[in-house]
Structure formats: structure tokens, C-alpha cells
Amino acid sequence: MFRPVAVAWRDYVPQPARNGLSNFTGNLEEPAVMVNYFLQGDPYQGMVHFTRFFLNTILGMGGFIDVAGMANPKLQRTEPHRFGSTLGHYGVGYGPYVQLPFYGSFTLRDDGGDMADGLYPVLSWLTWPMSVGKWTLEGIETRAQLLDSMVCCVSRPILILWCAKRTSSVMISSLMAANSNRRKIRTRKRFRMI
């Protein structure tokens, strides 16, 4: 269903525009990432994300240009550190797992944490239509990046990417396993950095 939109996005939107929009939506999340690192007791990474937000907002035209990442390799863009991972840092379990149409996987810790992230400054200033626009841009860009992929993937918060030749029961168990592995890998990466 979303494939034609992603194909048009990939084929007709110039790569610099796609990069700029991706940088902009990522820059909106930097204050939340910064606060989550501080909550985990990692002030160094918190200040890295403060610096990224400050430089990209002031010098990078509101975040459309990743000035911080170009200026210093230590300031490269990384996977957003959300409140769900902060809860995981303190031993909170994932809670129930649900696979929702047009949303993807849902766990109480991770998606409840995403809702908490929306309360931080910058993200909390977005109106509902602006938030939907941000999610839509992120979903279309993610789907466009995965067009040539043969792997079953979930792109939160909007899209579920279905593999064509799978039965629904196999698909759901595959998605659950993929999401579980993705979370474990993210957690391992974070603990190595600390």
C-alpha cells in the first residue's frame, strides 16, 4: 500500500532534499535524546546531543544541515536514545507486545516511552498535525530506504512492511522475533558506549 509512495519519494525527490528533511526531523528529537542520557547518568553523551542540537539549529538552518556531524566525527548522528531505553537501563521490562496495523510493533515500555519523549521541549511544541507530518516523513523515508530489501521489517510509527510470500502467522512471529532482536542489539550497543 505504501510502496508506490516510497517509490515516488525515492525516484522524484532529490537526495539533498531527503537528507535535509531527515536531518530536520532528527534534530527535533535531540533535546529528548539529551535528557534521556542525563537521566541514565551519562552527562558526556547528553552534552554531545546538546551540542548537536545547538550547532544544527543555529548554523544548520534549523537542523536541515547536519553541521555538527560534518564538523566533528564524535558528533555524528546516532540512533535516537528514547525514554523506553532509559526505562530499560533501570531494568524495566518490555511489557505486553502487540502488532498493530499501520503502526507496527507496540510494547508498553518502548512506545509508552515514546509518548513520554513527546513531553520534552521541542517535540512537545508540535501540534498534532505537525507530529503526524513528522511521523509521515520518517515513515516514507524509512520505507524508501528499505525498497530493495528482502527482509521483513517494521518501520515505526506508521508502516508495516509485509513480505509477500509469507503466511500471516509466520509473519507475526517473524516480526516479533525481529523486533526483539532489534531491541537487544540497541541495548547492547548502548551499554558498550557507557
From TrEMBL:
N-terminal signal peptide: none
Q: Name one Pfam family in it.
A: MlaA
What are the UniProt keywords, alphabetically? Lipoprotein, Signal
- Which regions form coiled coils? none
Any one biological process term the GO annotation gives: intermembrane phospholipid transfer
Which InterPro entries did the record assign? MlaA
One GO cellular component assignment for this chain's record is: membrane
Q: Provide the family line.
A: Belongs to the MlaA family.
Q: What protein name is recorded for this chain?
A: Lipoprotein
The major lineage groups are: Bacteria, Pseudomonadati, Pseudomonadota, Gammaproteobacteria, Enterobacterales
